[in-house]
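queue> holo job accepted (zinc ion)
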Amino acid sequence: MSRLTLFKLLFVLFLFSCSDEESQFNTDESIQVYFERFENEALIRNIQVDLSDITSDIIDIGEDNIAGQCFFQSHAPNHITIDREFWDNATTLLREMVVFHELGHCYLGRSHRDSQNAQGFCSSIMRSGLSGCVDNYTSQTRTTYIDELFEL
Ligand SMILES: [Zn+2]
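queue> job finished
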């Protein structure tokens, strides 16, 4: 085997090991369900959304009151992390609200919106959590909140 062939072989192996690592840093399977919901909710509203570029994982964030985070990365796909303790204890609706909030940042490019209605309920799931408005994301209100999320 010539030196050049050996070099090529090593290079190919290197490429393969790279793509292996990438696949480990993909979307967490239990979060993927909510990514699909987000794409479906967009489609219902005639908006084409493809979240295949956004990665996610569930980790111990270890900071009080932080359920999720969106990281904007210039040289890699945007990345969402969800706190494990939050995730393990959250209802389906609450998980959806938090994943949709982070996708509001990471995919829709939205920032926080802290306005509230007369009853003190947050007008948006894009609330910062610092303003004192009360979350009211229920099976009855979610359609309105998701409309607002997509700014309809
Ligand atoms: Zn936020």
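queue> The first strand starts at residue 55 and ends at 59.
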